[in-house]
Amino acid sequence: MKTIEQYIAEHPFFKGIDPSYLKTIMGCSNEVRFDIGQFILREGEEANNFYVIHFGKVALEIFTPIRGPITIQTIGDGDVLGWSWLVPPFHWHYDARVLEPTCAIAMDGRCLRTKCEQNHDLGYELLKRFTHIITQRLEATRLQLLDVYGVHCESNDDKRL
Predict the structure, then answer these.
(1) Which residue among 90, 109, 123, 134 is the one 20 to 30 A from 158 at the CA level?
(2) Using 50, 70 and 90 to split pLDDT, how confident is the model at 155?
């Protein structure tokens, strides 16, 4: 069985990161478990963690008054959950509901923000890595909203201003 340190060191999100940064990051982490139906994140609540999912399945959802919750993306084994801990005002932008029993490594965002303030190179390295996740989530949201609200392009000849 792998230790948290081994799992994180081998995880693609952390691939190529300076070993001293990895040690710093590990100092802000612990293992957590979530049950089916449990919410890991709730939109609007304070964001103080991010999670590297070891195993399980989680639905990222937004709530609409007319349709209720809409699943934007389903993530699981090996995925990273949560970027709002890094960007002020540090509040979640969506809900994350557990679909299958889930085990993850929780990274304490407050701890990491403090360490990033002390070492701006670490902060920049994490920001570069999270930018990819933010982009993925925005694209998933865009595609899901196009699907839910039936807005589809009929051809590539559409000209938009």
Answers:
(1) 134
(2) very low
Two tokens at 143?
A: 């595609």
Q: Which two tokens stand for residue 51?
A: 């999670």
Cis-peptide, bond into residue 89, ω within 30° of zero: yes
Domain count along the chain: 1
Q: List, for residues 41-62, the tens digit of each pLDDT value.
A: 999 999 999 999 999 999 999 8
Nearest to 81 by CA among 95, 100, 70, 101: 95
Which residues have a Cβ under 8 Å from the Cβ of 125 and sit 6 or more positions away?
A: 17, 18, 21
Rounded to two decimals, what is the model's pTM? 0.82
The boundaries of the domain holding residue 106 are: 4-148
Find the CATH number of the domain harbouring 73.
2.60.120.10
